[in-house]
Amino acid sequence: MISNTKIDSSICRYLIENMETAVLLFNSELKLTAINPAAENLLQASARMLLGQSHEAIFLHNTECHDILTTIQQENRTITEREIRLKLITGNTITIDFAATPLTRTQKVSDIIVEITQVDRLLRLAREEHLQEQYQATRQILKGIAHEVKNPLGGLRGAAQLLDMELENETQKEYTAVIIKEADRLSDLVDKMAGSNQPLEMKPVNIHICLEHVRTLISSEYPEMVNIITNYDPSLPEIPIDQDAMTQVILNISRNAVQAMLDSPESSSGEPNRLQLSTRPVGRFTIGNTPHRTILQIDIEDNGPGIEENLQAKVFYPLITNKPEGTGLGLSIVQNIINQHHGLIEFTSQPGKTVFSIFLPLAE
To answer: Which helix (H) or strand (E) holds 277?
Structure first.
């Protein structure tokens, strides 16, 4: 934290603009005089929009932040508050630690420096690490199970084929055909559970090609049943991905969303069924232990009933589903492909709004 000291405002502004943490500088009238790029990114607003604004305008929906700055101005002391729910100008809400320090001149508060740390991100990194550990452990278990199951399945299928060759009765041959077919189905299921060992065919692709292909498929599969909205950032560069695999990821999530909406009598918001596909770049983002200057974020949002709370912690596990006819492998396959791309997938869900977010590194 910046210490309480006498310091020239111009020097302070220079320091702020070159800091990595989100920092804002307010003058004695509690108007913003400096903001660094990290704070612009966190508040999701530009310096041009914010500079000169009062603390009430910047923290429009957060009286707690107003009170902290007013108290510092009156009492000339540092205040730190933990886990404040900060509603941004965009309407999004984040959890932050809010530290404010007065800068004095002739014993009076001349400026106030505010340092903001987004706690959600730290919690996300810890959760991501836990998910990665779970993912690796699950994959190892499934690979062991696959090996133990496929060996006897192969013997069973071979024996059925030999028996089929000896049989002359067509009715009896029908039974061996069932055995062979079911052995193949189980073998295929085990392969999907364990995840593909085939290397990805990575090449530069415009992600909107994958999204538009999925939009066309969903529109043809569910004509007039769902309103598909796109919100793409056309400035995004090509990204190194396996086009077929990434299309499968987006399709699996989108189909799940549409099926959830159609299984519900009407959307939780009372609106027509809506699926929204969005893209945007995000700066200064860490995936695993790797920091990235810029990443690509893909959001797949629906206004369906949401994911049941008791399933939310397990949706990426194989064989977890609430659909009687489902295999529970769709999201497990999705997570496997995203991990192969060194990316991250997260979701938030409540009645009326479920958003799956995919984060993929852009070429530096």
So the answer is: strand 274-287
Q: DSSP state, 273?
A: P
Q: How buried is 144 (Cβ within 10 angstroms: 0-12 exposed, 13-18 middle, 19+ buried)?
A: exposed
Report in angstroms the alpha-carbon separations of 121 from 154, 230, 262, 264, 298. Answer: 47, 27, 34, 33, 18
Cβ–Cβ contacts within 10 Å for residue 309, how many?
9
Lowest mean pLDDT among 204-208, 253-257, 262-266: 262-266
Pick left, alpha or beta for residue 36 (phi over 0 → left; psi -120 to 50 → alpha; otherwise beta).
beta
Phi, psi angle pair for 102, to nearest 5°: -80, 145
Strand 22-27: give its sheet, edge to edge. 32-35, 22-27, 108-118, 93-105, 79-87
What would the two tokens of residue 21 be?
């943490």
Fold of 9-119: Beta-Lactamase (3.30.450)
Specify the higher pLDDT residue, 284 or 54: 54
Tokens of 36: 């660094």
Angle at 250 between CA 245 and CA 251, to 5 degrees: 90
What is the mean predicted confidence (pLDDT) over 244-249?
89
pLDDT score recorded for residue 8: 55
Residue 26 to residue 113: CA distance in whole angstroms: 6
User: Is the pLDDT at 223 greater than 80, yes or no?
Assistant: yes
Domains of the chain, residue spans: 9-119, 123-194, 203-361
Bridge partners (DSSP) of residue 344 are 359
3-state secondary structure of 3: coil
Coil/strand/helix, residue 237: coil
Query: Buried b / exposed e across 222-250, counting CB within 10 Å, b at 16+?
Result: beeebebeeebeeebeebebbbebbbbbb
Token pair listed for 162: 């030999």
Domain 203-361: give its CATH code.
3.30.565.10
Q: How many Å apart are CA 346 and CA 310, to the nearest integer?
A: 17
